[in-house]
Amino acid sequence: MIKRNLKVKTLIAVVHGVRSKNAWGRYLREKAYDKLGNDKVHVVLIDYGKTWASICLTRKDLFIDYISARLTVLAYKYPNAEINIVAHSFGTLAVCESILRHRIPVGTIFLFGSIVRETFEWNTLIEENVVQNVWNFRSKSDWVVRFLAPLVFLGRSGCFPFKQIARNRVNNIEKKWGHTKFIKGLDEVVSYLRRVHS
Fold first, then answer.
1. What is the Cα–Cα distance from 190 to 32, expressed in whole angstroms?
2. CATH number of 10-197
3. What is the tens place of the pLDDT at every residue in 173-182?
4. pLDDT digits (tens, 9 = 90+) for 80-121
5. Model-level pTM greater than 0.70?
6. CB 98, CB 131: distance < 8 Å
7. Domain-wise residue ranges, the chain
8. How far is CA 83 from CA 138, 174, 177, in A?
């Protein structure tokens, strides 16, 4: 039986890349609790471990279903919270496809080094009120996304902007970081959530 938490108003779910692991979750938790307080904010790391990391490229559908299940549980456990998602690298694909397939409602999605295709259907998700805002932190200096992602038929929105920007809610933010340096952007995530939920 899953115990429900009615007090949390802001939930931040972190889905890391294959190699970035829980460094993102630890860093964001520390920053978020310091700036936002831990009484009404909760940071959850969706850590998929070495097993999933080793097969996620070859069994994408299973991996996406796993992330979908984790997000669905969070939505049930924190019924009064707005779910915000921070995702890096392969985590971006799992998050976006999960939301597209299962219509999991979220507030803001923060993408770093995204391998989601540039033509992703944001217009549909925003019109249906499934997603409120998207922040896509991208960099033309991200060589992993720019050159390696196409080799395995993945998108390059971590380099090039999304084409669908419905109601100006999809923000393509240009940085000069490499693929592993996007963790710097977590300070901007916390600052944004502080403004929105203050």
1. 6
2. 3.40.50.1820
3. 998 888 778 7
4. 999 999 998 888 988 999 999 999 999 999 999 999 999 999
5. yes
6. no
7. 10-197
8. 22, 25, 27
